[in-house]
Amino acid sequence: MPREYLIATSAAEALAMLAARPGARLIAGGTDLVIDLKEGKRQVNTLVDISRIPELKVIKEANGEVILGGAATHAEVAASQFIQDKLPALAAAAAAVGSPQIRNVGTLGGNVVNAQPAADTAVALVALGAVATILGPQGARRVAVEDLYEGVGRSRVDAGREILTHFTVPLWGEGEGSAFARLSPRRALSLPMLNTAVRVQVAGGKCTRARICIAPVAPRPFLCAEAAAVLIGAEPCPEVIARAAAAAREAARPRDSLLRGSGAYRKDMTSVLVRQTLAEAFTRATGQKIGGPGLQAGATGKVYS
């Protein structure tokens, strides 16, 4: 276990602490890291706590973008009326994470840096087109969230040298909508069998922009360009949504899992969740309910079998 626990008051101080102590690592919520330390999966000499740095906890709008601090907790994001109004997919995803205890301490940045492909808020951030700003010894860099994954559990953010300070999500403006849904066999299970987040924009009665993210069907949150392409230029309706959902099903490559179910089952459920989230997102974008078989606009953000 670590021999030293330090509390940083600024990002610059945290970086200095890391640089001065080889083997040090950042901690914010610690919901995954502490377990790894107890089980001996990680060896860390020093923990640098960044959970009390004010600039890492912001939730605000500036210059046409939503800015989300890397240390903002899931509970803070889920409870934010601003996020519920502007980015409902992210609010629903944050509300779906783990238990109340986990949501109260777990952070957006930690959910991404932990690099699990089905992390709920990471899936929503990818669908929303979020960009992460990472501060390190060489300065700051900006990377799309989907490009931060080296593989399952392997992040391109070095938590021993770098800080994911915040995410920026561009606001698309009038006619946009987003939604999130999650499939799990029971409420007590923290790992989803499948989750999906979508974002769309409608102008002149046609879909002009779309992003569809599905997990876990690949080593990272899977941004399904094939399904999004079906929507562009089309009028939102059950038939178009069904075609996009079918394209998502064909593109998804879930593996058989003792915990999450068979790949064939989750491949079929990909189509169901994509239909439901697109119906909800288009309803928000247009103000008109998108109905039809299998389409449930106004879903709660969680789906349970």
User: What is the correct CATH architecture of the largest domain?
Assistant: 2-Layer Sandwich
Mean pLDDT: 91
In angstroms, what separates the terminal alpha carbons?
Answer: 40 Å
Secondary structure category: alpha+beta
Unreliable stretches: 296-300
The CATH topology of the largest domain turns out to be Uridine Diphospho-n-acetylenolpyruvylglucosamine Reductase, domain 3
The largest beta-sheet arranges its strands as: 4-5-10-6-7
CATH class of the largest domain: Alpha Beta
**How many strands?**
15
Put simply, the count of helices is 11
Tell me, briefly, the overall form. Answer: globular
Radius of gyration in whole Å, from Cα? 19 Å
Element-level helix/strand string: EHEHEEEHHHHHHEEEEEEEEEHHHE
Domains counted in the coordinates: how many?
A: 2
Q: Strand count, sense and closure of the main sheet?
A: 5 strands, antiparallel
How much strand?
25-35%
The helix content is 25-40%
